[in-house]
């Protein structure tokens, strides 16, 4: 079955393939667009959620690459938020990169907040997107309440499929996106890596206080996100204050796939690389579109 998202992603990977890099003894995936604007140009780093490899942000990487060097990672098969934050520091050191703007979505958003809180001098702009403010209590809810390293992988993958197919039934116009992500859950993300991603949420550390300013941080959320409830969205904004908040009125948990042009423009605008486009209106201090 034809899937335009997969076709576009594969065309992107033909130009920017994922390579492997060893960071502190762990095997990571890395997309690196290279030094398109000189060695001293700013760098942008993407951190995916549970159901994405580095290339899940292919729309946004393509939009940013003409302006700056872009990195995106796929997580290793061991470790968690603390170890991955250390691995990101090692990656930047190995590449000779002093500072980055970074965006993390969902699991990646938690990691991004942790990294920015632990090493604020290294982060020029933090984008915390469709993410959590705390993992407290996560170990009491499925699938995290299971032994994630011993539970049958088919059961874990079936859980993702159930949730995604329920979204597909309710939003048949999003079927292409759902099918795209189901290939990730079904095996494009290897078993050990998928288990590690789930365990990273279950065992995640408390987030230290952030040093954001209104100009150096942005929160992104979606009104119809089935995984991040309203109270959690409010808490993410509170933790990241005085970051500027943006809310997509629709787009589920994956607005970067469902509304890619508006999402990419938002990133460019917050970095001072473009004018903000789209019908954004401020409501209770949050810009909505």
UniProtKB/TrEMBL annotation:
Predominant localisation class: cytoplasm
Compartments, record wording: Cytoplasm
One Gene Ontology term, aspect cellular component: cytoplasm
Gene3D superfamilies: alpha/beta hydrolase
Sorted UniProt keywords: Cytoplasm
Top-level taxon in the UniProt lineage: Bacteria
InterPro entries attached to this UniProt entry: AB_hydrolase_1, AB_hydrolase_fold, Maspardin
Domain AB hydrolase-1: 43-162
Protein name: Maspardin
Organism encoding this protein: Pararhodobacter oceanensis
Taxon lineage: Bacteria, Pseudomonadati, Pseudomonadota, Alphaproteobacteria, Rhodobacterales
